């Protein structure tokens, strides 16, 4: 469980009513931008441009669908290769939505995406971004994608079984395990990891996903990391899509496993 302390910070006087609603909804204290007494590790900033999550002494983190959907030139899209061909309006569950990058990309390709995020502060960023996109403030492509996205807040292990229609694909992107070979993360990113947690229950999420997906389960991992749930009795991947530093492991659902 996260031990990170948080507050809601209003950046502009006109945004105070919105900030008050978020503070009440999240059960967090409200502070002004000029406050010198903040003891919070992270602040949910409320401004005219939308919500941002700012670690103490760090840079703000925000969800910007219009930027997410700018496609890099050249190269192969390993996410789309891993998910496989999608029929129009195919149901996809992004079970660890995080900042929503993968979910937005799949929605832009025509999937009906359910994003599931269990950390309320991060879910707040997603909800705000979804509202901006649907209002057309993130561009036309993001507006169209936003109409194919819904957001659920809670534990995906519990929520997946209730999705209707059942998702063809369940995408899982758990927090990467720490690596002794990797340089220490910047303070802001380290705090963000503390907020999200280590996803120790990721194998349980994989087991739940295998029960509900009708086509495949896709798990994103560091390229050299062991398979999710290895040694727990869960199935091994039936294949993988390899990138330079990451890979996507592919699992057949329970009903299709040989």
Attribute tags:
Rossmann fold; 2 domains; four-stranded mixed β-sheet; single chain; alpha/beta; 11 strands; seven-stranded mixed β-sheet; 258 residues
Characterize this entry briefly.
This protein is of the alpha/beta class. The protein contains nine helices and eleven strands.
Question: What is the count of distinct domains?
Answer: 2
**Global mean pLDDT:** 88
- Give a quick account of the main beta sheet: strands, pairing sense, barrel closure: 7 strands, mixed
Name the CATH superfamily classification of the largest domain: Vaccinia Virus protein VP39
CATH fold name of the largest domain, please?
Rossmann fold
CATH class of the largest domain: Alpha Beta
| Helix/strand/pairing category | alpha/beta
Number of strands: 11
- What is the topology, as strand order, of the major beta sheet? 7-6-5-8-9-11-10
The coarse silhouette is globular
- Low-pLDDT residue spans: 180-184
Order of helices and strands: EHEEEHHEHEHHEHEHHEEE
Helices, by number, come to 9
Radius of gyration (CA) equals 19 Å
Ends distance:
37 Å
Percentage of residues in DSSP E strands? 15-25%
The helicity comes to 25-40%
CATH architecture of the largest domain: 3-Layer(aba) Sandwich
